[in-house]
Amino acid sequence: MKVINSGNKKAGVKNNFSLYLLIALFFISFLLIVSAQESEGEGGGGSGSFINLISPYNNSINLDGNLAFSYSLTNTSLQIDNCSLIFNEVVNQTDSNVTFGVTHYFYLNNLINGNYNWSVECNHANGNISNSEVRGLEVFIDTTPPAVMLVGPPDSSTDANRNVALNYSVTDNGYVTKCDLYTDINGTWAKNKSNIFVQQNATLSFEVENIPDDTTFDWNVVCYDFASTPNLDWGNSNLTLTIDNSDPTYSTIPNQNWAEDSYLALNLSNYFSDPDGHNLTYSSTSPSNISVEIDGSLATLRSDANWYGATSIVFYAFDSMGGNASSNSVSLAVTEAGDTPPGFIYTSPEDYYNDTDGFVTITCNATDDYSLNSISLYTDTTGVWHENQTGSVSGTENSTTFYLTNLEEGNYNWACKFDDGGTLASWSENKTFDFKVTVELEHDINNYTINHVDHNRTVAVIYSDYLGDSLDLGDLTIYLSNGSIYFTKNMSESSEFISNSTEPPLNIHAEKFRIKYDQIFYGNFTVGNEEWLNISLDYYYGGNLHHISTIHTMEVRLS
């Protein structure tokens, strides 16, 4: 029994030692946790992020010398005895009543102009010290007003333009926040415009528009600086400006006459002018049986078909400032002329037109005093001048559209003849067009590669579907840079489809081929190396062989 008791005592001693060891380890861990919490945010050098500076912001500007410094503490687990305002690196004030989660304030008043820095320093209950970031600020108490100078127009000047620029300049020892223009244009001295983007030591302008004519008014500019209570300054004295726009003037327009079924062109700038140099626009009354079209200063008077007689018209001129003038009453006499030849109005396409597919659309438009009968197209597409097509028309104005197809490549002349069904006819001007077949080669080969993994690419042959069966495709051949053949295929055997979403519709032949970089670069696949492919196509139009080609360069790149 004693032996057993003795053994139990030894076991009890061993168990007590383990318990003491666990208690010691727990106490050490607790001390480490507390120490870590108290030093949180100190960053080793006492700079603490748990001190949150609120205002003023870093590098802010104060305008009156009175400041409130605010901060808060964000770590509620720390025990803080007090916090101090460090102003220009010196303790300025101390607050011993510090609470977490609320905003605290330090106040300074009557600071003079200058640059300062500030921060907050807090003392922990365990003797540690934490510091916030350091912020800068500037105190700028501005007591000097801006200096405003009115640049022009000069005092007591006159301007014919109802839209004027009133110019001024301003300087200040600080910032100018706003300038206001004051006028009495409407009879009362009041603010007219404001400028909040003020550039100092430069000529600035207020643009004032639509000032009533025959108005004399005063104007001045006041500018404000950036002070807490803004300082201001006016121009030395009000300036006076008079708006005096002179009406356009005119000279007598003589009576006009022309033959029926024709027109009269009258240049109104020969009779109207503006003393102030303003641009003029024109209008007129609307005489019966005569249409009036005014383009710029050119008035075109066109009498109704088969009408002749007498009437009158008055023209009006307007300047850009609202001034106006009216002409004398101009007598218009349209004399009887009997039946007249048709007159062409326009033809299209334009002269020297370039065609690429042998499908040419020609439109001819004409007018006649009684009635049109036919419009004919004459061409030299066969080598001799001949009547190519004729269209029957009616009415006093009409047009016809002709189509030329299956042309051989070359340069051609054409014109339209207009017939009234009697003995009278007229011609349009002669025009030319040039026809040369255009076939395009397109592909999706990259300009560079970063690896030599082979892949498929496509070459497309594109041309107008209007060429139809007149065009036959031959061989597409791709040559390497050393002149050897890399790929060849007769494109008449390639995939074909028509794109009707364009005008003209496009005929597209596409062929895929394999890009093999080791072969194209001759095994020299190194960064910066360049090689090229010559993509060539033969095709036939009208039995004649045509050849087109394009060179495509590829480069090996790193990325």
Architecture blueprint of SSEs:
Blueprint: H1 2-38, E1 51-55, E2 60-62, E3 67-73, E4 80-87, E5 90-95, E6 104-108, E7 114-124, E8 129-131, E9 135-139, E10 147-152, E11 157-159, E12 164-171, E13 176-183, E14 190-195, E15 204-208, E16 215-225, E17 232-234, E18 239-243, E19 249-250, E20 256-259, E21 263-267, E22 272-273, E23 280-284, E24 290-295, E25 298-303, E26 309-313, E27 315-319, E28 324-326, E29 330-335, E30 343-348, E31 353-355, E32 360-367, E33 374-379, E34 386-392, E35 397-404, E36 410-419, E37 425-427, E38 431-435, E39 440-443, E40 448-449, E41 455-464, E42 471-479, E43 485-490, E44 495-499, E45 506-515, H2 517-520, E46 530-541, E47 544-556
Parallel strand pairs: 2-9, 11-18, 20-29, 31-38, 40-47
Antiparallel strand pairs: 1-3, 3-6, 4-5, 4-7, 7-8, 7-9, 10-12, 12-15, 13-14, 13-16, 16-17, 16-18, 19-22, 21-25, 23-27, 24-25, 26-29, 27-28, 30-32, 32-35, 33-34, 33-36, 36-37, 36-38, 39-41, 41-45, 42-43, 42-46, 44-45, 46-47
What does it look like?
The chain has 559 residues and is mainly beta. It folds into 6 domains: 1-38; 51-139, Sandwich (Immunoglobulin-like), CATH 2.60.40; 147-243, Immunoglobulin-like; 249-334, Immunoglobulins (Immunoglobulin-like, Sandwich); 343-435, Coagulation Factor XIII, Chain A, domain 1 (Distorted Sandwich); 440-556, Immunoglobulin-like. It contains 2 helices and 47 strands. The strands form 12 sheets. Strands 2, 4, 5, 7, 8 and 9 form a 6-stranded mixed β-sheet that branches. Strands 11, 13, 14, 16, 17 and 18 form a 6-stranded mixed β-sheet that branches. A hairpin with a 6-residue loop joins strand 33 (374-379) and strand 34. The radius of gyration is 47 Å and the shape is flat.
